[in-house]
Amino acid sequence: MSITDKQRLVIKVGSALIAPTNSGCSEKYLKNIAQFIHQCRLNDQQVVLVSSGSVAAGRQWFNDPAPSMAIKKAMAAAGQTSMMAMWDRLINLPVAQILLTHADLCDRERYVSIKETINSLLDNGIIPIVNENDTVTSEELKVGDNDNLAAMTAAAVNADAFIMCTDVDGLYDKNPHKFSDATLLKTIDTIDERIYQMAGGAISSTGTGGMQTKIEAAEKATAQGIDTFIVNGFEAHSFHNLLEGQNPGSHFIGYETPMEPSQHWMTHTTKACGEVVIDEDKTGFTDSNEVLTSDDIIAVKGEFSVGDTILLTTDDGTQVAKATANYSSCLLNYIKQEDSSDSSSAIQPQHHSIISKKHLAVLENA
User: Fold this and answer.
1) Which residues carry a binding-site annotation for ATP?
2) pLDDT digits 0-9 by tens, 314-326
């Protein structure tokens, strides 16, 4: 499978490539990536760049060997402008900055707005450069790594190919830094537990993601039918090979039948704010006209509001679905404490179900 016949590409570049010494931007490895992006544009391909590195780029201006979260946010603010200026100069084509939090992606209205903005930029020949908004984000609002952020972006803009640049040639059956007999996996058609075990832990000391997050990202992207590649961003030949239609790393094959976009968004982008445990006999509601009422609830876990995404599980821990809550956790807990007949009368006049089926994703292990 070649990227030369792909119309829309999402390319993710990590902090280790942006700031190899963790103290300021460096062009050392980015020239090859910028030339690759430029050539793709000359080939009439659209490109979205997801670039990490703002914290590492801004670290040089702060004399703090153990920075607090507040200092890291300040580093991100200072480093982001430096990083954007570098990409602007190296790519030498019009670029635009887009800073996102997970909350932006989890809100359906904002998600659609992001999609429309990026599409408008691409249609006008401008390269969107996406990064997590580290300056304002909190732990609750963070994606946490730009591998998964890039996969969510790729799904949002209906990308045809997704390329993650890292410090190894791709996914090996064991850590190539530790085992000389490690074998590179060139093609992966199914992402399962065996693949995750091969990924192991983080490799780079500069970035927040390792091979594990790249597999998570590949799983998100391939579910949307997006062919995904992990390549060595430190080697110029990786990009020459891609332009020649060759696979220089590991290729994860996109689903032949992709998930429906709204189901993909609910499954792979939204974050469950809480959990509702339902009766095992009621799991069939997902493929029928049956509704869930307060009588079907065994327990309510966590705190959530109307409109938040919640996880539906059974008493044995089986994950059934993710859905939009029609009731807050506070109200559902209150109703559960009341007499069952009273709870039904209290809840039914307003809604027929505790969740909305407008945004509902049945989970695979259900």
Assistant:
1) 12, 166-167, 208-214
2) 988 899 999 999 9
Helix, strand, coil percentages (3-state) for the chain, rounded to 5, are 40, 20, 40
CB 163 within 8 A of CB 3: yes
Q: How far is it, in rounded angstroms, from Cα 262 to Cα 238? A: 34
**Binding-site annotation, residues for substrate:** 52, 134, 146
Report all structural domains of the chain as residue ranges with CATH numbers, in order of start: 8-264 (3.40.1160.10), 272-362 (2.30.130.10)
What are the CB-based long-range contacts (under 8 Å, 24+) for 104-111?
A: 105/143, 105/152, 105/156, 105/269, 106/269, 106/270, 106/271, 106/309, 108/265, 108/359, 111/156, 111/265, 111/269
Instruction: Answer whether 236's CB lies under 8 Å from 215's CB.
Output: no
Q: What is the pTM of this model?
A: 0.87
Which candidate, 200, 202, 203, 188, places its Cα nearest to that of 249? Answer: 188
Strands in 187-188's sheet, in edge-to-edge order, are: 95-100, 127-132, 46-51, 8-13, 161-166, 227-232, 250-252, 187-188
Question: Token pair of 334, please?
Answer: 């209150």
Annotated binding-site residues read 12, 52, 134, 146, 166-167, 208-214
In 3D, which of 233, 183, 243, 178 has the Cα closest to residue 209?
233
Instruction: Count the alpha carbons within 13 Å of 183 in the hemisphere toward its beta carbon.
Output: 4
pLDDT tens digit sequence for 247-292? 999 999 999 998 888 889 999 999 899 999 998 888 777 776 778 8
Q: Which two tokens stand for residue 104?
A: 């932006």
List, in sequence order, every residue forming a beta bridge with 299; answer none if it has no partner.
277
Classify each residue of 117-145 as buried b or exposed e, where b means 16 or more C-beta atoms within 10 Å of its C-beta. Answer: ebbebbeeeebbbbbbbbbebeeebbbeb
